Amino acid sequence: MSNERQRLEQEALEQLNRGSAEGALKAYLSILRLDPKDRRVRQKVGEIYVRQGKNQDAERHLREVAEGLLKENAHRAAVSVLKQLAALRPDDPQIQLDLGESYLAGSYQSDAKACFDAALRAWMGLGKPLLAAKAARRLVDASPQDQTARLRVAELLEAGGDMDGASGAYSEVMEEFRRRGRMDEVGRIAELALKGRPEDVGLLLDAAAGRIQQGEFKRALQALQAAFLKAPKEPRTLDLLARAFEGAGQAERALKVLLELSRIGADRNDIAAEADALRRAAALGPHDSEVADRLARAEDRLGRLERKVTGLTCVEPADEGTLRAVVRAEVLVRYGKFAVAEDELRAAMSGQADSIALMASLAELLVAAGRVPDALPWMERLVPRAGAEASMILDRMALLRGIDRVEVPAAVSDDDLLDDDDDPATAPPVSKNPAPGASESATERGDRLHREGNLAGALLAWREALAEDPLDDAVLSRIAALRNAARAAESAPAAEPDFGAPDEGTFAEVEPDELGGGGWGDAEGADADLARAGELAAAGEFQDARDLACHHTGLAARVIEARCLAGLRDPAGALDMLREATNDAADTDPAYPEAIFDLSGLYIVTLKTRAALRLLDELHDLAPDYRSTEVAARRRGLQTVTR
Asked: Measured between alpha carbons, how far is 28 from 200 in angstroms, rounded to an integer?
């Protein structure tokens, strides 16, 4: 077989030297019958067919060669074959995509992007947005910083009905802009995403935040109204709601929302959030003594909560090795490396199991990581060895559990029970409950403080009792009962928020006209927006016009948006959008004739003349008076071209 192959290949070369392509082709085809997997010879066969103008035969052979090379990841070798295929079939988007992949593998970024863009446009022209999204995703891979390309992926997935994929793509773009601090862009993209997921609370809040940043408070309230109805206790909803009310000049409503926000912070034991909400409330109501008192208490709790047990004198590291472990853990926690810090601390504790400094560091690490239940046992182990600072540890534990501490009354002597002028003989009889004094045991003092409602004081006293007898089941039962009560209080359902008496109107009862015109669901505002968008599009401000029109439903809005896409050099995208919009609209829609006229123009731009002529015939029959001169001229021109 080897000799025969050599003979045939020599014959093919001789035929080519004589200028006989047909003779060379016969020799090469004979070689392929002997060895069908010989890609080099198959490529030569395809090239000869190209020179002979036999494009279908050439395409068949060249495709087989390209597929084999791509399957083996031989992208560089595939480039020349794919370029020949692209010349034969310039309208085949898959060939453009494969060529782009091969260019990208060879680090030819610019050539790759051109191919991906060609594939995208070709698939859009074929009405296949999901395949176009695949090409757009490869454009993103070629230009990771191009957020416009990322946004196009989301829009194409949405157009193709892949709402989950579109949501994920929109989220990618939003997170990148959020990372850059561009909340205006986050809000704009959230509004685009809302077209596919109009009830998504996160998108509604992002859209509202963008509007607030731009000073459009009344339009923000419209998005917040929908978000509030779905998530009335979500802190971010209330935070943005307060900002929007304040910006819209409704300080009283903002104050009520902030007080509700502070209550939710308190219910969740988020003392920092509670204090922040109360500070804002105090700024709106500077003469409200109740708000001032609540703020003072919250800031006091916050200040106490920020006093970590690692700052106590009793837990200072006693040697250099412990100090190094504690400092390293603090640095790791600062950068969010909780797992690494915990591993290192536990490794250090394996050799120093009784190190109070390492216990304190581990406890605060667990608090920072949001694992408060895991941190509390470590803090409890510190109490018996903390001496005079034990009360500070118990105070922090009480705050972390959500039990605010009442100051523990100091023990008094017998002399303090009487004033200087009192006569012991006339002193009142002693109560059956022993007065606080030196004779009262720690357990009895804890029981008394618990009856008086001083839960943290009771906990402190019981912990003192455990220091003397760590196995006292009665005291352990009391502490367990106190913890269970605290947890039950935390899990109790919160009261429904109230932003005003019925005659004042709650937020949910605010009418659209009170919130201001323009935006979601406001007919007059929509008309004004679309009129303004049309003016901007006519002036060439296509992006601004599109941003304004995209918030509204209806065919008129899609007509303007399609014009903007065409103005932004995306006629295929404009065509797809307007075609879908007209399919969904009734021919009685006032904007229908205008949409059909614009759609015919887009078909002409994308070289689909017969489809354009068919639409113009439909428009002539449906609305003979609509732009009759222009329609007639366009029809005559198309009839001439299509003959």
From this structure: 63
**166 in a structural domain:** no
Give the domain range for residue 626. 523-641
From start to end of 199-349, where are the E strands? none
Residue 320 sits in the same domain as residue 463: yes
**397 and 541 co-located in one domain:** no
**Cβ atoms of residues 186 and 210 within 8 Å:** yes
Judge whether residue 100 has pLDDT over 70: yes
Question: Is 163 inside any structural domain?
Answer: no
Q: What is the pLDDT of residues 461-494, one digit of tens each?
A: 777 776 566 556 677 677 767 765 655 554 555 4
Tell me: do 474 and 585 sit in the same domain. Answer: no
Whichever domain contains 462, its CATH number is 1.25.40
CA dist 217 and 241 (Å) reads: 9
- pLDDT over 60 (residue 518): no
pLDDT tens-digit series, residues 160-191: 878 778 778 788 778 878 788 888 888 888 88
Among 4-18, 188-202, 356-370, 549-563, the minimum mean pLDDT is found in 4-18
Query: DSSP label at 145?
Result: T
What is residue 267's three-state secondary structure? helix
Look up residue 236 and give its two tokens.
């971010």
C-beta of residue 120 within 8 angstroms of C-beta of residue 101 = no
CATH number, domain of 542, equals 1.25.40.10
Residue 500 pLDDT: 45
Considering the domain boundaries, does residue 602 fall inside one?
yes
Residue 220 lies in a domain: no
User: Helix 39-52 crosses helix 21-34 at what angle (to 10 degrees)?
Assistant: 150
Residue 171 near residue 197 (C-beta atoms within 8 A): no
pLDDT at 561 over 60: yes
Give percent of the chain above pLDDT 90.
9
Q: Are residues 366 and 447 in the same domain?
A: yes
Expressed in percent and rounded to 5, the helix, strand and coil fractions of the chain are 75, 0, 25
In this structure, are 583 and 481 located in the same domain?
no
User: Could you give the C-alpha distances from 168 to 150, 200, 302, in angstroms and in order?
Assistant: 11, 13, 38
Compute the distance between CA of residue 68 and CA of residue 86 in angstroms, rounded to an integer.
Answer: 17
pLDDT at 404: 52
What domain count does the chain have? Answer: 2
Residues 454 and 584 occupy one common structural domain? no
| Tens-place pLDDT, residues 536-548 | 888 788 888 887 8
